[in-house]
Amino acid sequence: MNKNKIKVLLEKNKKIYCFFRYIYVGVSNPSRLEKEKSYGEKNKDKHILLIRPNTEDGIQGLMSLFIQTMRWVDYAKQNEMIPFIDFKNYKTQYADGTNSWEYFFTQPSNLTLEEVYDSKNVTISGTTLKPLVNENLFKGNIFFDKDLCKNCYDIIWNNIRLSSAVEKIVAKEDDRIGIANCIGAYLRGTDYIKLKPAGEYVQPEAEEFIEKLDEFVKKYPAANIFLVTEDYSYYQKIKTAYKEKVKIVSFDSFVVNYDGKDYLSKTGLLNKNPRKRGMDYLAKIVLLSRCKYLVSSITMGSIAAYSMNGGKYEDKIIFDKGVYQ
Fold first, then answer.
1. For strand 122-124 and strand 224-228, is the pairing parallel, antiparallel, or unpaired?
2. Which among 144, 235, 141, 219 is positioned nearest to 186, based on CA atoms?
């Protein structure tokens, strides 16, 4: 049994999982444990939660980072702490020496990085012996639970906004596509299909996806299809099926020569500019969230889009095929 399968089994009991994870992290990488810090004398009457990425392996995609961060923001607010997100001093695949979170979103507070690192009472997010964040938030059941979806929607838009740079990209593409009259079509291929990562949602094959998408094309003939996928073979099949009805962003690119040996983030096949790569992907997710209808598989990307939308799509088809074992 590999470590991914062990993780899936342990996660069914959060207390046991947290205990073993705490011991493992404490031995292998103690810097990842939660910490209490005092950096200076500012904000003596405030308790700041400094939110860092859950891992520093550079694998996590932007929507995975986004969802983990939103859970920590929710935890901070539930516990009367002031959240601040630091993607400068902790590694992500988007790191370039600045606080890369702010390329994509605003901060959930008025604090600055300099102020946080001169404050009296700072907790640095990390691994603990007991569950802290609510991991029921931003999960696949969001597609089928209206109250959960509303909660996730509120956590996002009551705390952050898109950066002005991302807003500009979205507005420009919306003018060109007319996103409000589109069927959002989202599916992942490449490493999801080839590697079948344990615990991640099973993705439909292209033919299965097209069969369901066809139902919406017939049901809503005036709507175009806004396609979000990284897999060129999937794009080709859907483009062949629906021709000029298929709309993509003007800057879209697809993975062509994926060999199935490693995760995309480690292959060198993605855009080498981390800022552009992240902003372009986020813009596609935001546009997906503003479509009229949705046909989608379940991944962090579609969960993020559905959360941003608040479950307000007029109609939807969701592929819930369970998770890879």
1. unpaired
2. 235
Other Cβ atoms closer than 10 A to 141: 13
Q: Residues 203-260: pLDDT tens digits?
A: 999 999 999 999 999 999 999 999 999 999 999 999 999 999 999 999 998 888 777 6
Provide the strand spans (E) within the chain: 35-37, 48-51, 82-85, 122-124, 182-186, 224-228, 246-247, 293-297, 315-319
> What CA–CA distance (Å, rounded) separates 188 from 197?
12
Q: What are the CA-CA distances from residue 321 to residues 148, 204, 205, 245, 298 (Å)?
A: 20, 8, 11, 27, 9
How many degrees, rounded to 5, is the angle at CA 66 between CA 65 and CA 72? 90
**If DSSP codes are grouped into helix, strand and coil, which group holds residue 24?**
helix
Cα–Cα nearest to 92, from 123, 65, 129? 65
Tell me if residue 318 falls in helix, strand or coil: strand
Q: Which residues contact 56 (CB under 8 A, 6 or more apart)?
A: 32, 90, 91, 92
CA 117, distance to chain mean position in Å, is: 27
Nearest-angstrom CA–CA distance, 224 and 184: 9
DSSP bridge pairs for 184: 226, 294
